[in-house]
Specification:
By secondary structure, this protein is α+β, with helices and mostly antiparallel strands. The protein contains 8 helices and 8 strands; from the N terminus they run αββααβββαβαββααα. An 8-stranded mixed beta sheet has the order 1-2-3-4-5-6-8-7, sandwiched between helices. The chain binds coenzyme A.
Length: 231
């Protein structure tokens, strides 16, 4: 590798604090560990994202493809100030979110993908992402867009996000909405769940192995009857 050239190709990065892991007790009684991933865990997470790229339902194909590319770019140092969080229940990957810092003050929400549906994994992970930007990265606001109607209901409506006139979001230049610190703290008691510290045994299990459901199961879960995994 030409190290001098590589140095030029890599965007400079802030020193970003890591998201402190937590555990959320789901409505089903399951315990979802929410934690940040390291770059060396990206290939395994991509195994769960890949099948979603072909699912022409609820914009899974668009979001899955974009998330795949963003995670890969971050792993290979081609995405600036990025991070990713995952949710695991019994070690199984049930969802993934990612974002980045545009500046010290402004956070960019990139994607939210629920691999297991019907347990609000996506909603909880999105909330964790907002928590990260506002509370741990200490940002003033987060810029958010939605590619899907479900996303629009979950984020724009539930958090009463502020439409930013004349601001294009970096995801395709779509309409950008803003979560301010005030809005975050207003909705936090209702939407941001979980306990810290995450019990060490749960965290150790989650870190030891990210279990990926096979492609058939992921398809069934996303396209099949509501809550197929949890019955
Ligand atoms: C948006 C998203 C992250 C929300 O995840 P979530 O909070 O875990 O919610 P689910 O996807 O399980 O359920 C959302 C709705 O779809 C319905 N649904 C449709 N198919 C379903 C299935 N196979 N299993 C469970 N629920 C299903 C649910 O009834 C639920 O309805 P509700 O909004 O009235 O509760 C997730 O739907 C997703 O990953 N979608 C594709 C990518 C995407 O759109 N990302 C957001 C971009 S802005």
């Amino acid at each position: 590798m030409d190290l001098e050239l590589e140095k030029m190709l890599r965007p400079p990065e802030y020193d970003m604090p890591l998201y402190p892991p937590k555990v959320i007790t789901l409505a089903t009684g399951g315990q979802m560990v929410v934690r940040p991933i390291e770059r060396d865990e990206v290939p395994i997470v991509l195994k769960a994202v890949k099948p979603t790229m072909k699912i022409d339902r609820d914009f899974y194909d668009v979001v899955g493809s974009r998330l795949y590319s963003e995670l890969l770019s971050w792993q290979k140092y081609r995405c600036r100030n990025a991070y990713a969080l995952i949710g695991q229940v019994d070690g199984i990957l049930v969802g993934c979110v990612n974002g980045r810092m545009l500046s010290k003050k402004v956070g960019i929400s990139l994607h939210t993908l629920a691999i297991e549906r019907g347990i609000r994994a996506g909603a909880h992970l999105f909330a964790a992402k907002m928590e990260h930007h506002i509370e741990f990265l200490g940002q003033k606001e987060v810029w958010i867009t939605a590619e899907s109607p479900i996303g629009f209901r979950r984020w724009m409506i539930e958090y009463e996000l502020i439409k930013q006139e004349g601001v294009q979001h970096e995801l395709g230049g779509a309409e950008s909405f803003k979560l301010s610190r005030e809005l975050y703290f207003k909705h936090k008691p209702r939407l941001v769940a979980g306990l810290r510290p995450c019990p060490p045994d749960l965290l150790e299990k989650a870190r030891k192995e990210i279990i990926i459901a096979d492609e058939d199961m992921i398809n069934k879960q996303i396209c099949g009857a509501k809550g197929a995994w949890n019955k």
